[in-house]
Amino acid sequence: MKGQAVYPAAAALFAVAAASPSKTTCLLLIIYLLLLFIRRPHCFLPALVAALFFFVYFLIVDHHNKTSLSGGRHSLSVRFSAAPAIDGDRLHAAVQAGKERVQLRYTIRTAAEKEALRARLMPGTVCRLSGTLERPMPASNPYAFDYRRYLRRHRIHWLFLPEAIDLSACVRVRPTIIERLEAIREAGVRRIEARFPPEAAGIAAALIYGERRSLDEEVLSGYQRLGLIHLLAISGGHVTLLVGAALAAAIRFVTREAAVLALLVFLPMYAVLAGASPSVLRACATGMIVLAVQWKEGTIHPLDALSWTALALLVFDPYMVWDVGFQLSFLVTFALLAHVSVLTSARSMLQNLFQTALVAQLAALPILLYHFYEISVWSVGLNVFFVPWYSFVILPIAFLSAVFSFSPLIWLFSRLIELTDAVVRFFSVDYSFMLVLGRPGPWCLAGYLTAIAAAFLDWERGRLLRGLTAVAAATALQLAAPYVDPKGEVTVLDVGQGDCIYIELPYRKAVYLIDTGGTPEWAKEPWRKRSRPFAVGRDVVVPFLKAQGVRTLDQLILTHDDADHIGSAPEVLKAVRVREIVTSPGALPAVKAMARPFSVPMAAIVRGDRWKVGDAAFSVLHPEAGNNEDNNGSLVLLARLGRLTWLFAADIEEEAEQALIRAYPELRADVLKVAHHGSKTSTTEPFLRTVKPRAAIISVGRYNRYGHPSPEVLMRLKQQQAIIWRTDENGAIRYVYDENGGTFQVMKP
C-alpha cells in the first residue's frame, strides 16, 4: 500500500534514538511497535526489522566512533576541505588530520594576517602546523549546549590549537570534487558579500548558499524567536522551484528522460553548494527519489519518498537524529503530507496559508519547546504573510540579483530586506509576545505528542476547535507543573569568573536570582570584534531561566556592583519580569542607573532584614546600615532551604568576616558559597572555625588571571574537612530538595 513506508521509517528513528542510549525512547519504541501490532499488523514486521537493523547499526557506528590521537603538543598535516570560518580575530575549521577530523581553532594576531588567511586557506589547502590537541569542553550548565557531544556526533574528538599558521608551510593540492564545489560556494558567498549591502548580503547568502555568517545577529534571533527561521533555510521549496525551472528549460532542448538524468547528477552537487544541512539533504534526496521513479515512468507516494529519504540519511549518518534541523524538517514535512487532504480542501488561498502555518506550528511545537523553551504568539499569523512574501518575492529577486548583479535589482532587494527586517524587529523586540514554557520533560513531551496527534485526527473529522483544546490543555499542564512540584532547588551556575545563583522554592512559591555574572568588555581594534561574542547573560543565564520555565523573578538580588556580579543584569531584565531588585547600600546608585530603563522597584537591604516564604527563611547578615564599601559592603545572606543552611558570602574579605563573627558568634552553615571566588583575602581560618561548613562551593572561572581559588583557601577548607565543589572543574552545582532531604548534583563529576 502506498504511504506505508512511514511506519518502518518511524521505527528506525526511534531505534537510533533508543540506542543512544535513552530509556524513555526505548519505552516509546516498544509502545509504538505494540500499537502497530494491534492496529496495523501488516506493518508490524517491516517496522520491527527496521528497528532491529538500525538499533544494531547505530551501536556499531557508535562503537567505531573513536580517536587514535592523544592530547598534548603535536605537529600535524591538516587539510582544509572547506574555507575556514573567520569571525573577528577567531578562525575555526573542521580539518582532516590523517584519518581523523579535528576542530582547528586559532586566534589571529594582526589585520594583515587575517586578510592573508582569508585569501590563502581555500578548500584543498594542506598545511603543516604545530600546536596542542585538547578535549572539547562538555556542557557545564543544565540545558547548555554540549560542545563535546556535538563534535563527537560529527566524528571530531579534539580541538587543535596551532601556535601559528605559517602560510609558507601551506600548499594547494589537487582538490576533490567536494572541495571544488566548496570553493565555488565560498566564491559565491564572497561575491554576494562584496556586491550587496551588509543588511541584504546575509539574507541573500542564506537563501542561495545556506550560509548565515553575514546575517545580523539581532535579525537572526528575531527570525528564530518568531518561528520564521525556516524561511532562511534551503529546503523543499527551494529545490522544487529549482527542479521545476530546470525541467521546464531543459525539455525544450533534450528529452524529458535526459533532463531528469541530468538533474539526478546535479542535485547531489547542489546539496554541497547549498551547505549540506539536514534540510538541504532531505529536500535533495527526496527530489532525487521522486525523479528516479519518474525516470522509470512510475509514481511514488510523497510519504513514501519522505520515508525512504529518512532511511537513506540514517544509513549515511545516524547521528543526524539529534540535529534540530533534521527533526524539524522531517516532522513538519510529514505533518503537511499526512494532512494534505484538509489543506487541499481550503476554500481560499488565505485559508490554505493559515492552515498550512497552523499544521507546521503544531507539528514543530514539541521540538521548539525542547530546544528553545518558548514560542511566539505571532508565529502562525506571521507565517501566513512571510511564506508567500519569501516564496514569490524575496527568493526570486535574491536569485536574479545574485546571478545578474544588476544594480537596480540589488537596490530593490536591499530595500525589501530593510522592510522585512523592520517587521521582524517590531514583532520580536518592540512587541514581543513570547510564551516561555521551559523544556518539557519526557512525559510532558509524550503528552504533547498525544495531544497533537489527537488534534490532527479531530481536524480531519472537522473538529479543529476540539483538537486545539487538547493542545491547549497540554500547554496548561506544562505551565502548571512547577506549581505542583514539591521539589525546590539551588543551582550555582558556571558563569566563569563571577557569581550567579538560582533559588527556586518548592511549589514555585518564589524564585530568586543572586547576581547575574557578567562578561568583561575589553577595548578591541575593529577588525578583532566578533559578530556574536560570548555573553554570560544571553548565552548562559537567560537560556537557563527560560529552560526552567521562569517568566518572573520574585527578587533579583545583586550583592554589589562589580561587573562580574551584575554585568548581565540588563540581559536578565530584558528577558524576564522582575518584581523587585534588592542590593547593598553601596551598590544602590549604580544599580539604579543600570535598571532605570526597566522600571523595576528596588531597595537596599541591610543587616537585620529578613523574610520567610513557607518553610524557607532568609536573613541579611551584612552589610550594616551606613556601610558603602565595595567588596566588604556586599550582601551576605543566610538561608534555610530544605534541611540545609546556606551562607552566601558574596565578595566579602577578612574585615567583613571578622565583623560577621563579632555580630554572630554562633553563626553556622551547612553549605558555604565561598567569598570572592576563593581569593586568599577571604575565607580565613577564624571565619571557617565559626561557620564550620560541611560543603563549600567556589564560583570561579577556568584559567582566570587572578589565580583563584587560592591554594591557601583550598588548604583551609580541606583542614575543615569540607567537601569542595568548583564551577571551573565541576560546572554548575545543583541541590534539589524536598521536605525529606536533598541531593547535590554536579554537571562534570
TrEMBL record:
**KW NAD (keyword) present:** no
Keywords, A to Z, come to:
Cell membrane, Membrane, Transmembrane, Transmembrane helix
Q: Which residues form the Metallo-beta-lactamase domain?
A: 497-702
Q: Provide the topology term for how it sits in the membrane.
A: Multi-pass membrane protein
Where the protein is mainly located, per its record? membrane
Q: What SUPFAM superfamilies is this protein classified in? A: Metallo-hydrolase/oxidoreductase
Under the heading NCBIfam families, the entry gives: ComEC_N-term, ComEC_Rec2
State the name under which the record lists this protein: DNA internalization-related competence protein ComEC/Rec2
Task: Give the species.
Answer: Geobacillus proteiniphilus
